[in-house]
Design a protein that fits this description.
- By secondary structure, this protein is mainly α.
- About 75% of the residues lie in helices and about 0% in strands.
- The termini are far apart.
Length: about 190
């Protein structure tokens, strides 16, 4: 495991133990057995680690699945199921993040990446730019709000069912509004 991976894993462990608000760069360095100088070669602060964790936990995987399946297979649940499963598999970490004083930072990062995914989905759709911006925000923020509720409810609904709900509520609406059903939303 390289130093960057050690830092990320140590930060995740510390967040699960103490919460994001209570950990420091010093604690992360001590747990990962690296110097502060080595830490700063990879990250500016603990917030960058948080963003990197989100990227490595599911953003990259969801992006890869979207690139593989794209809008052609939008009605398939694999992308949504992967998203919810990754959050569920790292449940304690996400629970600590959503219950921290910095939950807004976590949700801001999550919203940023959900908006990027929605933008990919709506790229090339013939709608006015302003409407597209608002639609992207609407679908992304709905996803973030649903994830937040699910985490706060202690994952009482299995990941596959959460994916099915979002697909039913949001993906179906997106297909009905913007995407040719016969091509993208069979």
């Amino acid at each position: 495991m390289n130093n960057k991976d050690k830092i990320i894993e140590s930060a995740k462990d510390l967040i699960c133990m103490y919460g994001f608000d209570k950990i420091t760069v010093k604690m992360i360095c001590e747990k990962s057995f690296i110097s502060r100088k080595a830490f700063y070669n990879f990250f500016h602060d603990k917030y960058e680690i948080l963003e990197e964790i989100l990227i490595s936990d599911f953003v990259n995987e969801v992006d890869n699945l979207f690139d593989k399946f794209g809008r052609i297979e939008l009605n398939r649940s694999i992308i949504l199921e992967t998203l919810y499963q990754r959050i569920y598999d790292n449940g304690e970490f996400y629970r600590k993040m959503i219950k921290s004083d910095t939950e807004y930072v976590f949700e801001k990062y999550l919203l940023k990446y959900m908006m990027e995914l929605m933008k990919k989905i709506l790229t090339g759709v013939k709608i006015e730019d302003k409407e597209q911006r608002y639609a992207i925000y609407f679908y992304a923020s709905a996803q973030v709000t649903l994830i937040r509720k699910w985490i706060l409810d202690n994952y009482e609904i299995p990941p596959k069912q959460m994916a099915a709900y979002y697909k039913k509520w949001a993906v179906k609406a997106m297909c009905d509004c913007y995407l040719p059903r016969e091509v993208f939303c069979k």
